[in-house]
Amino acid sequence: MHAHSIVADGLAFPEGPVWxxxxxxxxxxxxxxxxxxxxxxxxxxxxxxxxxxxxGLALGPDGALYLCNNGGFTWSDAxxxxxxxxxxxxxxxxxxxxxxxxxxxxxxxxxxxxxxxLSGPNDIVFDADGGFWFTDLGKHRAHSTDxxxxxxxxxxxxxxxxxxxxxxxxxxxxxxxxxxxxxxxTQARLLxxxxxxxxxxxxxxxxxxxxxxxxxxxxxxTYLDSLAIEGDGRIAVATLIERPGICSVDPATGAQEDxxxxxxxxxxxxxxxxxxxxxxxxxxxxxxxxxxxxxRPGLRLAHxx
Length: 305
Hints:
Layout: E1 5-8, E2 14-19, E3 25-29, E4 34-38, E5 44-48, E6 54-59, E7 65-69, E8 75-78, E9 81-84, E10 95-99, E11 106-110, E12 112-113, E13 116-117, E14 121-126, E15 131-136, E16 148-154, E17 160-166, E18 169-174, E19 180-185, E20 190-198, E21 201-202, E22 213-217, E23 222-229, E24 235-241, E25 245-249, E26 256-260, E27 266-272, E28 278-283, E29 288-293
């Protein structure tokens, strides 16, 4: 088990951690439909209550938070473990929202692309141009599943494009040079790489139905969740169920290094601190935020001062 401390507990399925220079970390609480700041001493302040299913979060160039809202889940309790399910009865659409940190005001930026509704936006990362890549995990219903993909949006709400449609994608991150975008396919258990050719465009795949390059894959019921990038370009992807924790993957060789954490759904990691070697990890079924030291620095994200 990777050495860690628990910064906060009692969170309603936390994900989407965003590190701030004051040492606080903002997370979403998916089940509660809210966005919460966790202070270094464990105090919690609710920043906003967007409702639905707030999922991935990123700090934008304007100092606002940008939110992937999956539209909500059904929930079940499995022996004390909180587990998300399919679309709830009140589900309408997934959406991208902007949250004013000072006021908590939530504005909807996008809920469709090219006339098709967003299903379950999941994770988000800004590039150096001030736009953001985000993934859509799709949505599960009793007898059908929507397809998702990889999208790109402008922060001012003026444009959204679909870069890759088809696979239901979860985590997303950019290589240090910004020339590669990585996504994690949860149930396909694939970590994929795409060559970025411009804001919202990637190089075509030889077979459109099989997009991207496989960086690595995982056996059995090791499902994949969100990811973050280390300073040297390694991909720290959250692994669920069979190997719960964070797996650091070498993008060149696909070599895997596991860091185990005590939650079947260890879902997200974010790097921060003065040396970028502090890491916060969301332990979602048990409602906790963990903090640890990472062996290497994380990549400093775009638009941090």
